[in-house]
Amino acid sequence: MPRGAGEFKFEIVKHFGVIAESSRGWRKELNLVSFNDAPAKYDIRDWDPNHEKMGKGVTLSREEAQTLVELLQEALEK
After folding, report:
1. Stronger pLDDT, 4 or 75, i.e. the higher one
2. Is pLDDT at 5 greater than 60 in this prediction?
3. How far apart are CA 58 and CA 19, in angstroms?
4. I want to staple 48 with a disulfide (CB 3.0 to 4.6 A). Which of 15, 18, 20, 53 is the partner?
5. Half-sphere exposure at residue 68, Cβ-oriented, CA atoms within 13 angstroms
6. Across all residues in the chain, what is the average pLDDT?
């Protein structure tokens, strides 16, 4: 799914789920996203309903995502 003019492109390779939805219809999602034809990474960010616009987010490699899962599990146990 290319975005806008110029060189910036993105493709949502896999949608895992919605974390939350705002009253404006934007959804915080976990996706596997390729930016500018680079290998896809795990991505958490807000998206408009049509996936044409995005907010700021966090992009993680597989190893970083695994570390985040471990940290979240530990934090939620406390």
Report:
1. 75
2. no
3. 14
4. 53
5. 11
6. 93
| Residue reference for tokens 């949608």 | 15
Contact 63, 42 (CB under 8 A): no
The answer to whether residues 46 and 35 touch, using CB atoms and an 8 Å cutoff, is no
Distance CA 26, CA 56 (A): 12
Domains of the chain: 10-77 (2.30.31.70)
Closest CA to 10 of 36, 44, 41, 32: 36
pTM (predicted TM-score)? 0.85
CA atoms of 28 and 47, how far apart (whole Å): 6
